[in-house]
Specification:
Elements lengths: L22 H34 L3 H29 L1 H18 L6 H15 L2 H12 L2 H33 L1 H10 L2 H10 L11 H8 L15 H4 L3 H30 L5 H7 L2 H22 L4 H15 L12 H29 L5 H29 L2 H22 L13
Helix pairs in contact: 1-3, 1-5, 1-6, 1-7, 1-8, 1-11, 2-3, 2-4, 2-5, 2-16, 3-4, 3-5, 3-7, 5-6, 5-15, 5-16, 6-7, 6-12, 6-13, 6-15, 11-15, 11-16, 11-17, 13-14, 13-15, 14-15, 14-17
């Protein structure tokens, strides 16, 4: 097994060798699909929560504890999985994570109460955490810098697509086969992806199907001003970078807003809007379609500005501030009595949330060499997870004692604050120039 810290070497082209044009886009398609599966697995509980809670006699705070169990392990493993992926490589790192989270999802079938459900969620978080550091590393390996935000947008759109697919899929399976079998279906349903990944994924310089032109495009990227592979940076050394703390703090503030919509939207629609399971399956996918559009829009727009001659710093920050402003409309959700208009407002907010999130996910590759991108991404995920834990517990408390109004007010405020944090911590988004062997 090859370590990802090995130096990049361009393989000479072989005459008559069969190649696949634009192979890097097949790779990002695999990353998109695994992210869909990741989100369908985790969304199964969210879709079933309004009804599973009644069967297992769970309060809002009980449900918050179950969600928090996932977020705690997810938070810890963001950092650990980033190290694992940097150590054993993207290909086998994904295999390990995917098998773990698929089996953990299946275990939910045997939940009998809050404790067992929390244990199964904790196990799920251990496996699912590595999807984002792994994908960030794969994109850093396979895409030149001027294409990375768009590629990240495609991959990250898998989260919205998974959340979009989950409500009708889970509602259908549950209505026909029961909620326990729904966990089995989604847990084992992605096995074909695993086979495709093992067949198709290699590093670019090792891949037998890559053309010499595409390999040159990736390896000889003129936008990379530092060697993309170099001596390994110690994990704790990364914490000495102000930029790492900036990304961590920004994600600590803003990722919980996405978690809120993912974990609590079906609850909100049932408790506050009177939706049935069938109605949730019919309409709850709409905000997540908007989330997908936000991922693609944020990544494509930022890369378009770069191709037009903008600096990475300006291209990223203009899209970030516009995205942050869109999230503010969450304040209006509790003011409207029209449920369909409430869904429209939520859709606008999550469009901004995911446009913002895509650029934050791309930032480790904007700033650091690719042999530590997974580690930096994992550390930023720790910040995201810690924020998610706090916000989820706070949400359960506020809903049991107050209402959705203060929760949505927080959801509207956190992205603008996160943008100010980024301006303070990362005055200029650029590839860092440092003797990485120090």
């Amino acid at each position: 097994m090859r370590s990802d810290s090995a130096p990049v070497r361009t393989r000479p082209a072989s005459s008559g060798r069969f190649t696949v044009p634009n192979l890097r886009w097949f790779i990002v398609a695999l990353l998109f699909l695994v992210t869909v599966l990741n989100y369908v697995d985790r969304q199964t509980l969210s879709v079933l929560a309004p009804f599973l809670r009644d069967e297992l006699h769970m309060s809002n705070e009980d449900y918050a504890i179950v969600v928090t169990a996932f977020l705690v392990s997810y938070t810890v493993m963001q950092a650990v999985s980033g190290i694992i992926v940097d150590k054993i490589g993207t290909r086998w790192g994904f295999v390990l994570m995917f098998v773990w989270w698929s089996l953990s999802t299946t275990l939910h079938r045997w939940a009998i109460g809050v404790r067992s459900l929390a244990v199964f969620r904790l196990l799920l978080g251990i496996g699912e955490a590595g999807n984002w550091p792994g994908a960030a590393k794969a994109i850093a390996e396979w895409f030149p810098r001027r294409e990375r935000a768009f590629a990240m947008g495609i991959f990250n759109a898998g989260s919205g697509t998974g959340a979009l697919v989950a409500p009708p899929l889970i509602a259908y399976v549950t209505l026909h086969y029961g909620w326990r079998n729904a966990f089995v279906v989604v847990g084992l349903g992605g096995s074909v992806w695993l086979l495709a990944w093992l067949v198709l994924y290699r590093r670019p310089e090792e891949h037998p199907l890559i053309s010499s032109d595409e390999l040159a495009l990736i390896v000889d990227d003129p936008d990379d001003q530092v060697t993309p592979q170099g001596p390994r940076i110690r994990w704790l050394q990364l914490l000495s970078f102000r930029e790492v703390w900036g990304i961590m703090l920004a994600r600590w503030l803003t990722d919980p807003v996405w978690w809120f919509y993912v974990f609590w939207l079906p609850e909100y629609l049932k408790r506050e809007r009177g939706f049935t399971l069938a109605t949730i399956g019919l309409l709850a996918w709409i905000p997540f379609l908007a989330a997908d559009m936000g991922c693609i829009f944020g990544g494509w727009t930022s890369d378009y500005f770069i191709r037009r001659g903008w600096s990475i710093d300006k291209a990223r920050k203009v899209v970030l501030v516009c995205s942050a402003l869109l999230t503010i409309d969450a304040l209006l959700v509790v003011q409207t009595k029209n449920s369909l208009f409430a869904i429209v407002l939520i859709s606008i907010a999550v469009f901004g949330v995911q446009s913002w999130g895509t650029l934050l996910l791309a930032m480790p590759a904007d700033l650091f060499p690719s042999n530590v991108v997974a580690s930096v991404s994992g550390l930023s995920g720790v910040g995201a997870g810690l924020g998610g834990v706090l916000f989820t517990l706070l949400t359960g408390y506020l809903l049991d004692h107050f209402s959705y109004k203060p929760v949505l007010a927080l959801a509207a405020a956190l992205h603008p604050v996160g943008f100010l944090v980024l301006l303070w911590a990362i005055p200029n988004i650029r590839q860092l120039r440092r003797n990485w062997s120090d």
